[in-house]
Design brief:
The structure is a single chain. By secondary structure, the protein is of the alpha/beta class. The chain has 2 domains: 182 residues, Rossmann fold; 104 residues, Rossmann fold (3-Layer(aba) Sandwich). The chain contains 8 helices and 10 strands. The chain has a 6-stranded mixed beta sheet with strand order 1-2-10-7-8-9. Strands 5-4-3-6 form a 4-stranded parallel beta sheet, sandwiched between helices. The radius of gyration is 18 Å and the shape is globular.
């Protein structure tokens, strides 16, 4: 097999699966972590950004010379910036200082034009998310030839995540008893859980949300610090029947686990990964030896060096 890639886009996907050791309690199920940090921007969102842009190119929603527009907590924006840079497509992104400076700098470095929305709480809230969406919609309407990817409603992301599910299935030889993933737009959870349940209808699929904004569980929306998750409302692509259970993890607990992963496993990842792993460990303790739980390292810790997660 050739190791020569014709484009940076050819480097998306095919990430490895790693067994956790140091943080897993005794007499637990095996916990496997899908290293989406190996994607070009260090994030699983490379998959969905590529899927959205290429689907729009195929069906004519995005014409040559057109501009891509999106609202983003950061990782989707960085991934879109990579795709658009590789394809020479102008990109307008709406984001906020609620999300890490590293993400904003990365988007700009890849050529995106940024519009910043202020967060009064400094965290992710329903009001902030809705204001970002409204601003992106307005920019798209005012930009001739634009294509608004609209990630909360765009089902073009689902085939990209189904492909990721097939990778997990192949890497485990079909031995997966439970799958854990945090929910933001819910596109990744929907795409992965749908495909994994097709492959094994008995598989447990556990959704994770911030404890401070546990709207999927029927709680009130609130401000939290698990970037890329918990928009503060039930996202349009959420399908409750796909979740065997919904777990809540606080921002502080997610950060603590992310720091443990760095110091005890050498895995440098973000806060949503901490939430994923903490939930996966709880499920693994309940299932016991001989079972396998799979979860995701959503993105690299390099995106959070200036935040409370890793700031010294």
């Amino acid at each position: 097999m050739s190791i020569l890639a014709k484009s940076i886009l050819d480097c998306i996907g095919g990430t490895r699966l790693l067994a956790l050791t140091a943080v897993v309690p005794r007499n637990s199920a095996t916990v496997l972590l899908k290293l989406e940090t190996e994607n070009p921007t260090g994030s699983m969102k490379d998959r969905m950004a590529l899927a959205m842009v290429e689907a729009a190119e195929r069906d004519g929603r995005l014409q040559p010379g057109g501009t891509v527009v999106e609202y983003t907590g950061g990782s989707t924006g960085v991934s879109l910036a990579l795709i658009c840079a590789a394809k020479r497509i102008p990109l307008e992104l709406v984001t906020s200082e609620a999300f890490s400076k590293e993400k904003r700098d990365h988007m700009a470095a890849l050529g995106a034009r940024l519009t910043l929305i202020h967060s009064p709480t400094g965290g992710t809230t329903k009001e902030l998310t809705l204001e970002m969406i409204a601003r992106a919609k307005a920019i798209a309407a005012a930009t001739p030839g634009s294509f608004w990817t609209d990630q909360f409603n765009n089902t073009d992301v689902l085939p990209g995540y189904a492909k990721m599910a097939d990778e997990i299935w192949g890497q485990t030889s079909g031995r997966v008893d439970a799958f854990v993933q945090s929910v933001g737009t819910s596109g990744s959870f929907r795409g992965l859980a749908t495909r994994l349940r097709e492959l094994n209808p008995e598989m447990q699929t556990i959704a994770v949300e911030p404890a401070e904004s546990a709207v999927l569980s029927g709680g009130p929306s609130g401000s939290h610090k698990i970037e890329g998750t918990g928009p503060g409302f039930v996202p349009p692509q959420w399908r409750p029947e796909l979740a065997s259970a919904i777990a809540q993890v606080s921002s502080n607990d997610a950060m603590a686990m992310a720091r443990r992963l760095a110091r005890e496993e050498g895995i440098f990842a973000g806060t949503s990964t901490g939430a994923n792993v903490l939930t996966a460990l709880r499920i693994a303790e309940r299932l016991g030896p001989g079972k396998t739980v799979v979860t995701i390292a959503c993105d690299t810790g390099m995106k959070y060096l200036s935040t409370a997660l890793y700031a010294v």
